[in-house]
Amino acid sequence: MANVADVRWISDDHFRLAESPLWDERSNRLFWADIPAGNVHALDLGNGRRAHWHFDGPVGSLGLARSGRLVLAIAGSVHLFDMTREELLLLATPETDFPVKRLNDGKVGPDGAFWVGSMDARPVKEPVGALYRITAEGLMDCKIAGFKVSNGLAWSVDDRFMFHADSRGPWIDRWHFDKATGALGERHRLCTLSDAEGRPDGAACDMDGGYWSCGVSAGCLNRFGSDGTLLARVTLPVPAPTMLCFAGHDMRTAFVTNLCEGLDPGTLARHPDAGRIFALDLGVAGVPVQRFAD
User: Fold this and answer.
1) Mean pLDDT of 251-278
2) Tens digits of per-residue pLDDT, 184-213?
3) What is the pLDDT of residues 66-97, one digit of tens each?
4) In whole angstroms, what is the distance from residue 11 CA to residue 31 CA?
5) 208 torsion bin: left (phi>0), alpha (psi -120 to 50), beta (else)
6) What digits encode the pLDDT tens for the residues 232-259?
7) Which residues are 77's β-sheet partners?
8) Which of 90, 120, 92 is nearest to 104 (CA)?
9) Is pLDDT at 4 greater than 70 in this prediction?
10) Cα 226 off chain centre by
11) Which among 50, 87, 246, 247 could disulfide-bond with 23, CB atoms 3.0 to 4.6 Å apart, if both were Cys?
12) CA separation (Å) from 190 to 25, 163, 224, 234?
């Protein structure tokens, strides 16, 4: 398994709250959002060229579409974004009570729909968030409710399970998943985590059945088996990792986003690289990302 010595920094910028890293195998570009800045960034991993787009609201998450567009969760709404024309198309507005609530972690599932959760954006969190399924036709279905900070979406390699977390629960659940319909079945609580163990943030699954969870409160990655067994813990050179994605022709490079906003001066002094995006090899290949069925 990896350790901090294996890290490769890919950005000199210190992002306030970088999230939702996403690799596009068609263009070999890495995308990510800086949530409070309202920016989506893209880095060509071949030539190092950068691009970014600004939006009028916090960008909680993003996904790839079959058409080549991006699916974006902005404030309380989900949009399709044409990067060439810089045009936004509204699909649905799951959360109308922004800025009390906003959309957070989201991913395209094996069913071709965009799954996105919401969170209480106030300092004192209440269980007012929910998890939504959005189709290309703009149909919206509230699948689960009662979260403080919906997070940690990922699907197993065989598409049988969906993983989901509440960062302020703080717990991780596993759901039986029907790829054909997007229906959820039996729910199983995998684990409840302390701050020292790493409250669950963004996540990804690997080809060997592991679920990787960013321990945002403990500066680590936790790898769980599908039964909740802790298989590995990787210490990172940043105090608050937010999400990881797998990339590359062999899907063995993990890119990790993290934050620097809200960290106290002492923590920032000890971690001068907080907010920078980095890559590392976790010794296993990741499950390929899905594309929105537009």
Assistant:
1) 97
2) 999 999 999 999 999 999 999 999 999 999
3) 999 999 999 999 999 999 999 999 999 999 99
4) 12
5) alpha
6) 999 999 999 999 999 999 999 999 999 9
7) 74
8) 120
9) no
10) 19
11) 247
12) 31, 9, 9, 19
Q: What is the torsion angle, in degrees rounded to the nearest 10, for the CA atoms of residue 148, residue 150, residue 156 and residue 162?
A: 70
Does residue 93 contact residue 116 with C-beta atoms inside 8 Å?
no
Alpha carbon distance 35, 267 (integer Å)? 21
- The fold of the 4-292 domain, in CATH, is Neuraminidase (2.120.10)
Cis geometry, peptide bond prior to residue 94 (ω within 30 degrees of 0): no
- Which range is least confidently modeled, 2-6, 177-181, 241-245? 2-6
| CA atoms of 213 and 221, how far apart (whole Å) | 6
Q: Which residue has 């409070």 as its token pair?
A: 36
Sign of the Cα pseudo-torsion (39, 45, 46, 48, in order): positive
Alpha helices in the chain (DSSP H): 265-270
What are the tokens at 252? 């063995």
CA distance 177 to 156: 10
Cα–Cα distance measured from residue 276 to residue 17, given in angstroms and rounded to the nearest whole number: 10
Whether the upstream peptide bond of residue 170 has omega within 30° of 0, thus cis, is yes
For residues 105 and 63, the answer to whether their CB atoms sit within 8 Å is no
